Amino acid sequence: MRGRSIALGSVQSPAGDKKPTLKGDEAPNCFDEVSPSGSVCDPNGDPCIGGFARLYTAIMQARAVAPDALLLNGGDTFQGTVWYNFLRWTVCQHFMNLLPHDAHVLGNHEFDHGVEGLVPYLDGLAAPMLGANVNATFEPELQRFLQNHIIVERKGRKIGIIGILLRVQFPEANEHARHQRVGDFRDPWTLAGPSESPGIAGKEIAIAGLWGRSRIPDGRRFSAPIGNVIMEDEVEAVNREAAILKEQGVDIIIVLSHVGFDSDRRIAANVVSDVDIIVGAHSHTLLYTGTPPNGDTPASDYPTVVTQANGHRMYLFEFSELHDKHKQFTPSCILSVIVGFPVLIVQASCYTRYLGNIKLFIDDAGIIQSWSGQPVFLGTSIVQDPYIMELLEPWREQVDAIGKEVLGHSKITLNRSWCASRECNMGSWACDGFIHQLKELARNDSWGYAHVCLINSGGLRVQINPGVITTEALLMAMPFENSVQVYDLRGEHLLEALEFSVGVTLTPGDFRSGRMLQVAGLRVVFNASAPAGSRVASARVRCIDCDVPRYEPLQLDATYRIVSQNYIGDGGGGYTMLDEHRTNVRVLSDPDYVVLQHYLRFQDIVTQDLDGRIQIIE
Question: Would the pLDDT of 127 be above 90?
Fold first, then answer.
């Protein structure tokens, strides 16, 4: 039987995902190259990697060899560095359109500034945007730019591409969207500032910040404000679109997903056997067969094969997102399918470290017989395209005018790599900064205003290196411009939040996750061997009305003043116990990164250590 080869590539957007030669990435906002750790490139440090100019070179080299290759983008083009913070969708759209994408899929961060912040980006985007489970019926301006699937042809083959976005990012917002509009979103970077709205989930909440009063804008209750969008089940959406594609004579079906590697495996096990490949993003997972360059550790093979109960095998490829590090234009992974109808999953790490790359060999019956390829490491051997470097320069001048401001200096590394599993000095430093900012509100008989600070580790994206700390470095570490909230909470619900923080069990004794809390004003001991829900061995809270600050046992019936970002305060990441039980909510006028700018200027020299505020015992 005469076979044909199709190359697949995927790209994950500045926050991204993939095709038959499939090239791709999740290209989170990494226009500049980054350090190997994903932080700001240090010319005097290790050789820098990634960046849009290097990604462009790799894609164009691949297309020269395989001009019919598919290039897919895995979403999250927004967020991650000061480029998006200062220039928003305009810079993302401009440079995304320079790449020969066949399709994009929506990422959760595309909604970070509401539907109103997404529509202008889509209006000028050259390639189609997919979202089969994104029901925008009640957001007509958004609906006209979304497609459930597309069909492309390569070498006489019809290839269907279905896009899906992780539904659980927006669980409660779905029902809220069915009943009422929560208010118009206004970009906080505009001179007018945040707009007034009915509040979050219908509640009117006053902002009593250090510099004024207003109301909370339409906040990110979960991952982002999605307005009247209704998120539908991913598997049902894929099965529905796959049936439509088969009726139209499609040979090969690719799911371009922004749901994460674990969810990709679940979907692969449950979708109809007409689906051949899943090209995934969102979880920043590196899939690689063998030993990858640069000392990285892959989570699984490239591609990962999932066998369904009926014997059908699915192949999974995951995009490499730039989240967690320098998030713009992160390359993704490529996928392929082999005999036996497997489903492949591919993904290619983060920080534009890799470009996903895979070639599929498909027989005349439309069955993938074999594949070849690995993610391409975007190291110094890949030259930065000079034309792209020239195009970036005028945008960079605007970014650097704000981003290069020196705020202070650090004698140590503010490390975030431990934040998801134990105390990390970046989280401790940020929480100490929030507590410090509130001290001027303390009564005359109190030394402090808030007892406790809580920060979810998922909001801490990259480390801050020793040396000069700039606004750019700070915003790369905490890019989401969350507001800072202060509220009262009973001890029983604070304990509930602490238990939820370590409620995930991956392997015995391991509760690493993005919901792990970093704290200030607390001394917490977690028992890693205890069952979920009973892992807080002890918790002590620092007093604020005492002559000498000291830590006292947490009292379930006592009321404590908490400071946190609005993401978890509004119930995001599963922290519904905070939103449902807090009272007297106040919001600072400055967003989180501005609060920490003030703290850095006050400190000047950072020497944050690990002081034992979080301890893990077996």
Answer: yes
